[in-house]
Amino acid sequence: MKHVKLDRIDLRILRELQKDGRMTNVDLAKHVGISAPPCLRRVRALEEAGFIRGYHADVAADKLGFGITVFTMVSLTNHAESDLLNFAKLCDSWPQVRECYMMTGDADFIIKIVAEDWEAFQKFLTHQLAGAPNVAHYKSAPAMQRTKYDPGVPIDDKNGAAPLKKE
């Protein structure tokens, strides 16, 4: 993988593509203040270096019949590395688990689950999660409403991270 030292233009490219991954290269070049050919070269270099991992559509879950989102904290009985990895792999196999994070603290994992309705969620919980090997216990918190969705990370032209807002 090619090493890329990010400059202000690279950071602007990342910020713009984070907002709109379908933006044409010509539009992207205009937004970041360079011509199209070097812009395309930079985008390809950022992809090759792993700064850009892919492009995805933001699909409306409710329009596809997924009416609920539940965050579930899972604690395992055993904490050997192989046990943790096995649970993570199991989460990968469940299509309704959309995100999975290994945690420190009270829970070993937190998973984001989408389901058509409460009955479908309960079925997943009792037939899949509760019966999974090494699961000691779990605690679920249903999301009432998503109030913010800002994918990616805050990017600033100067150093890569946007400054924290002062109140």
Structure report:
There is one protein chain. This protein has helices at 8-19, 25-32, 36-48, 81-93, 118-129, and strands spanning 68-76, 97-102, 109-115, 135-142. With 167 residues, the protein is of the alpha+beta class. The protein folds into two domains: 8-48, Winged helix-like DNA-binding domain superfamily/Winged helix DNA-binding domain (Arc Repressor Mutant, subunit A, Orthogonal Bundle); 62-142, Alpha-Beta Plaits (2-Layer Sandwich). A four-stranded antiparallel sheet has the order 2-3-1-4. Helix 1 crosses helix 2 and helix 2 (25-32) crosses helix 3 (36-48). The chain starts with 7 loop residues before the first helix and ends in a 25-residue tail after the last strand. The model has no long low-confidence stretch (mean pLDDT 92).
Oligomer designation: single chain
DSSP strand content:
15-25%
**What fold name stands as the CATH topology of the largest domain?**
Alpha-Beta Plaits
Total beta-strand segments: 4
Structural class: alpha+beta
Number of helical segments? 5
Shape: elongated
Helical fraction: 25-40%
Largest sheet strand order? 2-3-1-4
What is the C-alpha radius of gyration, as a whole number of Å? 20 Å
Order of helices and strands: HHHEHEEHE
Low-confidence stretches: none
Number of domains: 2
What's the end-to-end separation, in Å? 41 Å
